[in-house]
Fold:
Amino acid sequence: MKHKPSRVLKIFLLCTIAAILNYIIAFIPMHLLAIPLFLDTIFTAVITFMFGFIPGLVTIIIYLLISYIRHHDINIFFICIIAEITLINRLKPAIDQPLRLFSFKKETDFAILISILARLMLLYITVFLTVSVLGGLIDFIYYDLLKNNWPYYTAPDIFKITLSETGLSKLAINILSRLPINIIDRFFVIFGGYFISRSLVKLTR
Structure:
């Protein structure tokens, strides 16, 4: 099914806005609030929930371009983001199901909400584990095996210091150090991204 040029343009504009918002929201918790969370994919998730994989990928590319222009560096963990939107696209619940939150006058409303939350929880757990393992593997290959220097100190480094005293392998440390961070920020990305997308879906009608 072909999309009208006006709708394609609208989607591209929303992808661009989402990428800019990702860049802003990545800066706020890490630099202004000193909260070690990676929330720079939340609006990529919104776009993927709304339109699917390709617009989500476009949002990633625009975000990487913005980041490169600003910092002259490519975030090698973009592979994790691609994996994330792939899982979202495959496992996402529908965003156009009629649902009156906090007003369950019919049993169907409650049943729909439970179904949505169950699918979101499955998606959240899958993304959380996948991103942690994949991120740890990329970290291990790029920085430990290839001996590249870290450009800056990140949240997982805090946990690496403690885990390094356990005798675990560097690969295991790289993966485990991401779990405490990703278990929190992926919750905001998946659940927040879904419910934001529900509120914005009318923009594309």
About this structure: The chain has one domain: 5-204.
